[in-house]
Structure formats: C-alpha cells, structure tokens
Amino acid sequence: MIEEKALPIVIVGHVDHGKSTLIGRLLYDTGCLPPDRFAEIQESSEMLGRIVEFAFVMDCLEEERSRGITIDTTQTFFKTARRRYVIIDAPGHKEFLKNMITGSSQAEAALLIIDAYEGIRDQTRRHAYILGMLGLKQICVLLNKIDLVHYSQQKFLELKTEVSDFLNQLNIHPNFILPISAIHGDNVAGSSEKISWFDGPTVLQALDTFFDILNFINYRVRLLHNICHFFA
Asked: What are 174-232's pLDDT values in tens digits?
C-alpha cells in the first residue's frame, strides 16, 4: 500500500557525479517517465551525439543541456510499491551552492552521490557539511559510476572506507553506502550480476527503509493523545 504523503529527498554531490542521471534512471525504471518525454530525451541525446542522457529529465533548459550542469533546484515525483517520493535535484556546481542549500532544507532524507572513479571532491565535502548542519539523519551514500572502475569490489571497499572516515568527522553516519551505475541502471531499481559480490539493497530498497518524519511525529502525537484520553 502506497503511503499518501510523498517523502521529500534531496540528491546532492559534486558536479558531474551523476545526480540528474540517477533521477532520470529512477523515473524510467519505476515507470514514471512518460513515453513522449523519453522519446524527447532520445532525440536530444542523438542530436548531441550521446547515448541516452537520463540527466535531461531534470536538465530541461537548453543552457543546462549544452553546459552539462544543473542550474536550478527542481522537484519531481516517482513512486514505489510502498510510497511516493518527491526528489529535489540540487545543483552541484559551486556557483549554485545557495540553490543546493534551499533544496536540502526541504528534505527529510538525502542521497549523497560520489563518482567511484573520481572519489571525494570539493563539492562533496561542502554538501556533506551542509547535510550535517541541517541535521539530516537519513542519508544514503551512492558510489556511482562503478562501471568506470570495472565493477571492482576492492575499489568499492577502499572508497567506502574513505567516505566513512570522512563523514564520521562530520558526525554523519549514513544508513547505507551502495555501489551503483546510474547510467546503466546497476543496483538502482534492480540488482546487477556485475556487482554480484554486493549483498546490500538497491537504491529503491534503501529509500523504502526511510520513514516520513512528519508522519512519525503525527503518529506519536496521536498515540500520546489516545493514552491521555484512556487515563482521563
């Protein structure tokens, strides 16, 4: 049964580490991307001489398409069998840091995406620091582009340790650290034979473990009210 309220999540990370691509992949894999929109994306990708660019789902402005970066904070929806989600795509470029802060402040959970080939970069550090300052506790780290390191388990484990040590310094303790390839769909909506060595959840499975903070608070308020009424 799908919960009524959409859980707001923000996707943050260094520019070009795959935020918009992940969002496009999530929409496509969950059947929430209209066929005509996908056809438009295919056409735009072919005109630019690229494979299907799922990032174009979010980067709908022509300037963003030509420059390859997300400029504004955008919201869109997708759903799983459990609930609906509103995803806030926050820009990674340092020129648009204020937009990223605005997006993150609206979220109840976050996906911090890191290029498995490039590792932790400047905006990774800034965005992680902001997530810590905002007090977000429901965080999933995605080590994206695992295909660029040949789906290496050793590389994943090395980067996972590095990321964990870095986040611990900020008192951030992610719920999950997952290997994925957003462009190819590995471990996003479904598991992948290419990373059969990984026995953790997919991105969607990880998201579905997060709870709606406002619904939880309302539940506790109703529970307290009922207890008080019982003993009155």
From this structure: 999 999 999 899 999 999 999 999 999 999 999 999 976 545 444 444 444 454 554 44
* Distance from chain centroid for Cα 215: 21
CA gap 81, 30 in Å, rounded = 10
| Alpha-carbon span 125 to 48, nearest angstrom | 32
**Which amino acid belongs to residue 84?**
R
- Paired residues of 10 in beta bridges: 88, 110
Residue 9 CB contacts under 8 Å (≥ 6 apart), including other chains: 85, 86, 87, 88, 107, 108, 109, 110, 111, 207, 210
Topology adopted by domain 3-231: Rossmann fold (3.40.50)
- Predicted confidence at residue 97, as pLDDT, reads 47
- E strands, the chain, where? 3-13, 74-79, 83-89, 109-115, 139-144, 176-179
Domain boundaries, the chain: 3-231
**pTM over 0.85, yes/no:** no
Q: How far apart are CA 128 and CA 123, in angstroms?
A: 8
